[in-house]
Design goal:
This protein has 166 residues and is mainly α. Helix content is 48%, strand content 6%. It is built from four helices and five strands. The strands form two sheets. It has a three-stranded antiparallel β-sheet with strand order 2-3-4. The C terminus is likely disordered.
Length: 166
């Protein structure tokens, strides 16, 4: 009879690599969304608008943000955390989210930063970050496995499991 020996890792939640990536990406977006509302971390906070290129608030003094931009980060973060519960959803979150960020990169490169079309708002730093995020998320979604390894024969005992005889 094969019996499994208990290990401390049995008590931890086992996530697939793609689920872990979606959780980390989602948590990062959630953090960025929160930081966008903190004066000091966001410079020129008093100029933050609801939306539009008129907002001069800059996350970390580099990335132009608005209330809408921060809310999008918060929503995208919550979505990633929720999607991380199932590997198939995590994979979709990373790939579709990456494609959205690549589209946002193209959009940001095509529109004039001073036009009404720049409603998010986006600046050059945002555009290049969106390119990196888009490529990274798509690659994570395509490359990372959806399943966790279930262990080795040494974690089982018994004559047919390849472990110790008891």
């Amino acid at each position: 009879m094969n019996t499994r020996t208990s290990t401390s890792s049995d008590l931890s939640v086992r996530r697939s690599p793609v689920s872990t990536a979606a959780l980390l990406v989602g948590a990062t977006f959630l953090l960025v969304g929160v930081l966008g509302f903190i004066p000091g971390i966001t410079t020129d906070y008093h100029t933050m608008g609801a939306a539009g290129h008129e907002s001069m608030a800059m996350l970390l003094g580099v990335f132009q943000v608005s209330v809408l931009h921060n809310i999008v980060h918060l929503a995208f973060g919550v979505l990633g955390i929720l999607a991380s519960r199932r590997a198939s959803l995590a994979k979709s979150y990373l790939i579709v989210g990456g494609v959205v960020y690549l589209a946002l990169w193209i959009y940001g490169m095509v529109i004039s930063q001073d036009s009404a079309a720049n409603f998010v708002p986006l600046n050059s730093a945002d555009n290049w970050l969106h390119l990196v995020l888009g490529i990274g998320m798509v690659l994570l979604g395509l490359v990372l496995p959806r399943r966790t390894s279930t262990g080795t024969a040494e974690t089982y005992s018994g004559p047919t499991a390849g472990g110790r005889l008891q």
